Each structure stands twice: as C-alpha cells, then as structure tokens.
Amino acid sequence: LVLGILNSSVTRLYVSSVGSAFRGGFYAFGKNTLSGLPLPDLQLEGEAAKEIVKLVSKRESLKNSDSALTLEREINRAVGRLYGFTKSELALLLSEEEETGAEDDIRLAA
C-alpha cells in the first residue's frame, strides 16, 4: 500500500507543492518532505486500500511495458480515490502528467 501511495501522481503533486526542486528538476522524497504527507485512515478505506495493494502486486510482476503503464494509471486513480479526489480533479491531474510526460520523467533524489 505504501509503495502505491509513494509512487502515485498524488504524492508527486504533494512533493512538488511542498518540496524544493534541486538543479535538474529533482525533488527530495525525504523525511522532511514526506513527514507532512497526510495518510488516509486505512480502517475506513479498507476496500480501497486492498485494491491498491492488489494493483501494486500486479505491477511489480511486470517489466516496463504498455501493461505496466496501464496498471500505473489504475494505481494513480485508486490512490486519488483514496484521498477523496473527485473524478474531475483526478482526470485533470492524470491528463497533466500525460501531457508533460511526468509519468515517464520522474526524477527522485534521496
């Protein structure tokens, strides 16, 4: 579940909003940045959390392929629903990532 949340578009949006960009467009996904990341109450969101875990497990078994990208988009939608994004907010977030190529060009620094 944590892997799905941390690698999601929602978390990238959060980090780009609160974190500092390093030279070259890198963002630190470290303790200082992620300590403020709000985590949903998983007891209230049991089925949504189970869905994310299932999708992440499937994704881990695939190499980079069209199927993997499809699963990543499904994970992003599921995490967005977990965080209470509306359909239109989620569509906007995902379409912006596709337009900018953010899905394929995430640069992480520890």
Distance between the termini: 20 Å
The percent range for helix content is 55-70%
Work out the strand percent: under 5%
Quaternary organization: single chain
Report on the biggest sheet.
Answer: 2 strands, parallel
Unreliable sequence segments: 103-110
Structural classification: mainly alpha
What is the tally of beta strands?
2
CA radius of gyration: 14 Å
Number of helices: 6
Average pLDDT: 84
Strand order of the largest sheet: 1-2
**H/E series, N to C?**
HHEHHHHE
Shape: globular
Description of the structure:
With 110 residues, the chain is mainly alpha-helical. Helices cover 59% and strands 4% of the residues. A two-stranded parallel sheet has the order 1-2. Helix 4 (46-60) runs antiparallel to helix 5. It is globular.
Features:
6 helices; disordered C terminus; 59% helix; globular; single chain; 4% strand; 110 residues
Helix-strand layout with pairing:
Blueprint: H1 2-6, H2 9-18, E1 27-28, H3 31-34, H4 46-60, H5 66-82, H6 87-100, E2 108-109
Parallel strand pairs: 1-2
Helix pairs in contact: 4-5
In short:
With 110 residues, the protein is mostly helical.
